[in-house]
Design a protein that fits this description.
The structure is a homodimer.
Chain A lengths: L1 H10 L9 H8 L3 H7 L3 H21 L7 E2 L1 H17 L1 H9 L5 H12 L4 H4 L8 H21 L6 H13 L7 E2 L5
Antiparallel strand pairs in A: 1-2
Helix pairs in contact in A: 1-2, 1-4, 4-5, 7-9
The structure holds a DNA duplex.
Chain lengths: ~190, ~190
DNA sequence: ATACTTATTGTACAAGTGTTCATTAACTAC
DNA sequence: GTAGTTAATGAACACTTGTACAATAAGTAT
């Protein structure tokens, strides 16, 4: 607890990478050995801070449809809103994580390129004027990154053609104005 | 060049975080001071490796529609395939980046939770049997992460309600079976 | 209270970090 | 080729890191 608070406090003024373990334990008034008893490196401590945030995320999205077997677009909307409300609640920590160097610029770099892809035109032509272009393109960019990550994790068991086919299939599939079955498998 | 090769070589056997700058310069047969002349930390060197990969990514996706003003779903498909072919070409480096600790588990953790969200049912109900569930849920999870990141970057200038509305709007919008205008603004 | 277990402390050590600086080597003019 | 610029080297410095170990403090049984 003291270590987490110490880290969060230090991250207000300093880049994550410039914070030494010595800094953390000195502010927390603990021995350096105590840190190493619980964590291997400061990233692990940061992850635990994140775990607390994620615990709230899980509660937030589950809340709207507990005791609901079949839910409609209304309940889904409520659930989605809860997620974003959760992020708003932890806005400072989310900001901290993105601003500090804890977040690698590698990801940012890939996604910035993906955003420039004309793929976004897929959703922008005959555009829905309500749609925020910035949000939609970030959505699209990270969505593709998500597919790439999944692909890498399978050890590239699919072909590039298959991946492209899948993307187009996902983009083509729509079934919003209907009733959904909730997934209870998790 | 020598430093990049040295790092890639070391990453075959060792976690990124366990590779010291001393290791890198010794294998590259260079002085440690030379490293610090060019880079602040090893992450910066890794980013430069990534830049080389991204340079190829850009070429890959632009190739299918150079000299094309209006393109159809065919050219788009070609472009998408090129992206995934590029990833396949650099499969070893992509794998290296994901397997090593260069990639923070933070992201993974968030996305794993997002994947469990019933949001995927949005696309799964009345499901297209062709769609790969794993890929689709990773797509969906990172897509939402993308929106969150964009949101954070704006300094939370939108409300949570607006964000949820936008997500539903994006999911609702479809215009695949048409002709697209290419975006020349980049 | 006693004995047992676990957490924290202080100290020490070899190795790595980030920086500085004078010296040497390599590259670019003209 | 010579002069001027830039890059790489080696050595040194205070500091952080990761690890180890014996000593002490805190917590948890019975």
């Amino acid at each position: 607890m003291a270590l987490k608070e110490s880290l969060i406090s230090l991250m207000q003024n300093k880049d994550f990478r410039d914070i030494s373990i010595t800094d953390i334990v000195e502010l927390a008034d603990l021995n350096r050995g105590t840190f190493y008893k619980h964590y291997q490196y400061k990233e692990e401590l940061l992850e635990e801070v994140m775990e607390d945030v994620i615990a709230d995320l899980i509660i937030s999205y589950r809340e709207p449809y507990k005791n609901v077997e079949i839910f409609t677009i209304k309940e889904l909307t409520a659930s989605v809103i809860k997620i974003f409300e959760h992020v708003a609640n932890f806005a400072n920590i989310y900001t901290l994580l993105l601003k500090s160097n804890a977040w690698p610029t590698l990801l940012e770099r890939i996604c910035n390129e993906l955003k420039k892809l004309p793929l976004e035109d897929l959703e922008d032509y005959l555009p829905n004027p309500k749609i925020n272009i910035e949000l939609a393109s970030s959505y699209q960019a990270y969505a593709i990154l998500g597919m790439i990550i999944e692909w890498v994790n399978t050890g590239f068991k699919y072909s590039a053609d298959y991946m492209a086919e899948q993307l187009l299939e996902i983009l083509n599939n729509k079934s919003v104005n209907s009733v959904f079955k909730i997934n209870h498998s998790f």
